[in-house]
Design a protein that fits this description.
With 142 residues, the chain is mainly beta. The chain is built from one helix and eleven strands. Strand 7 and strand 8 (84-88) form a beta hairpin. The model has no long low-confidence stretch (mean pLDDT 93).
């Protein structure tokens, strides 16, 4: 796995929202819940868990909008281009999840688990990749 110099950088597709992560991420994984499928338009969402307090919005903070589902973490997206960027605990303003597809480069960490596999898309079988699997939430990252 490639090593990564800090900060880890990323942003939305239109380039208006930019962020930096100034600490090594805690872990990364795939989420197969139906909410992530609908939000991303894919079978799973790859997310990394940043160390608390390590994410800084460098530009475009005023464009980030948050959707609060009935249950689960809030979802942050760019209101200009619609890019899904973050998730966070509704009780915390700090992003608790970063969408890996928004990263500029390899972050030095790769997904090590799959959660909510009980809801995996029937049209895309789960790969035999050896990653740890959780029928429901792994806990602490949604």
């Amino acid at each position: 796995m490639p090593e990564r110099d800090l900060p880890i950088t990323g942003g939305c597709v239109c380039g208006e929202v930019r962020y930096e992560i100034d600490a090594e991420p805690l872990h990364a994984g795939y989420c197969h819940c139906t909410r992530c499928q609908r939000r991303s338009g894919t079978a799973a969402s790859a997310n990394l868990r940043p160390k608390p307090g390590s994410v800084t919005i460098v530009s475009g903070a005023e464009l980030i909008r948050w959707w609060t589902p009935e249950r689960g973490w809030e979802k942050g997206f760019c209101s200009n281009c619609g890019s899904a960027l973050f998730s966070r605990d509704p009780a915390d303003d700090d992003p608790g999840g970063v969408r890996m597809g928004t990263l500029d480069h390899h972050p030095g960490i790769e997904p090590s688990y799959r959660q909510f596999v009980a809801y995996a898309a029937p049209w895309e079988p789960l790969p035999d990749d050896g990653l740890e699997r959780f029928e429901e939430s792994r806990g602490g990252h949604r």
